[in-house]
Amino acid sequence: MTTRYVAAIDQGTSSTRCIIYDRGGVMVSMAQRKHTQYFPEPGWVEHDALEIWHLVERLIPAALASGGIDPSELVGLGITNQRETTVIWDRTTGIPLHRAIVWQDTRTSEMVESLREQGIGADVERRTGAPLSNYFSAPRLRWLLDACPGSRAAAAAGTVLFGTMDSWLVWNLTGGVHGGLHITDPTNASRTMLMNIETAQWDPRLLEIFDIPAQILPEIRPSLSKVGATVTPVPGIPISAMIGDQQAALVGQTALRAGESKYTLGTGGFLLFNTGTTLVRSRHGLITTVAFQMDGQPIRYALEGTNPTAGALVEWIRENLGIIDTAAEIETLATTVDDNGGCYIVPAFSGLHAPHWVSASRGLIVGLTSYITRGHLARAALETNAFAARSMVAALNDDLAAAGVDMSLTELVVDGGMTANNTLMQTIADICDVTVKRPQMAEAVALGAAYAAGFSVGLWTDEQQLRRNWHTGAVWKPGIDPADRSRRVANWSMAVDLASQWDPA
């Protein structure tokens, strides 16, 4: 009997991976490559979409070869991706008209503020489930169409296509200029600020607000569905799932039922809480978003909190301050001191996100005295993730209570590269006053894309099969005095208030 495997393309902010899993959810092989980060102006972040596609062309064969796997043994391929990153390309040449604008980019802040001053923020949030913000794709897409010469005329002529990275990769995988599929799924479409959260279709009023021609948009299909097969680089692999990276982590953590959640700590920190088929509208600064959609079934919704600068802060410290040589050293340095020495970091590199949403804010370090050492800075950098998590957990529970939903978050199930930092995990438990659980398989994004792809083609037929693959790796419980917690949270809140008032000339 032929062994059956499922593969995932995990297209992330800093790198792209192809990982192959067996039916037990065990990683069989992996190929990974980093791509170039471009920072052409302050607040601008770009990727070369063509570079990323060429990486994928090499990664799929490399992962197959590494595992000694024949392509015929792959029953499904799942695509997961950084979500709000925006690319437009010429459908006749396959060449992007501009480098992709990354989800961390802030160039559209003034555009968004101008739209907000027109009084349309409430309407946008009602239609999308998300606050009007430069975080989402629509302002970037408008910027691209305005900035790239001839792009609007080309769009009217039907030769320009838009997509988030899932659309770009699937279009290329399925033939590109030779009939490639131009599609996306509701998890990614919900991050564009162009999809109606209730209908899961492109919203004409939103297209009007952002001046986006409908003909450039991809078709929205269920996250877990058989959409086609690869043409290149390895022909004939069924593409059976497309899902945004944070929603993929929700699936990878097997948080498939209402009331289940996950907190991913990678480049950013993302809390998702599954609300099932109930659409819970946030009143406390979170995003009402799509969790996933299975073919032929109603959409599952989620509440989401976002902190775009988790691991990104550690990388900034490594690259720009030079006080550590590797990201892992941040924990060693942080443990050289007992506390943060009164120092707090608010890493609002792209503004304050959930639950604050102040686009003009910028990062700051407060509480500096001559007493502060590198160790205090390292500990403050770790603690900022715990404070951000607490803000999101509080907003989430307030939203659930306000909606009269009989659910709440009482523990954090974590995943992502930063969860290897045990000091950070204990700090999150202390500050959030909840139990923190880390699974043995702490990288859930690619696993979730693989689960989604396998579920679509019947490799798994029951969610209990997936749950049996989940095993607790470590547990942390709160261990600090409540008065100390309250003091530290109050100091953090003052720091956030200072950042929110930052309005440079």
Automatic annotation (TrEMBL):
One of its GO terms (molecular function) is ATP binding. Pfam families: FGGY_C, FGGY_N. GO terms for cellular component: cytosol. InterPro entries: ATPase_NBD, Carb_kinase_FGGY, Carb_kinase_FGGY_CS, FGGY_C, FGGY_N, Glycerol_kin. Keywords: ATP-binding, Glycerol metabolism, Kinase, Nucleotide-binding, Transferase. Residues 263-455 form the Carbohydrate kinase FGGY C-terminal domain. GO terms for biological process: glycerol catabolic process; glycerol-3-phosphate metabolic process. PROSITE patterns: FGGY_KINASES_2. SUPFAM superfamilies: Actin-like ATPase domain (SSF53067). Residues 5-252 form the Carbohydrate kinase FGGY N-terminal domain. Gene3D superfamilies: 3.30.420.40. Belongs to the FGGY kinase family. This is ATP:glycerol 3-phosphotransferase. It comes from Williamsia limnetica.
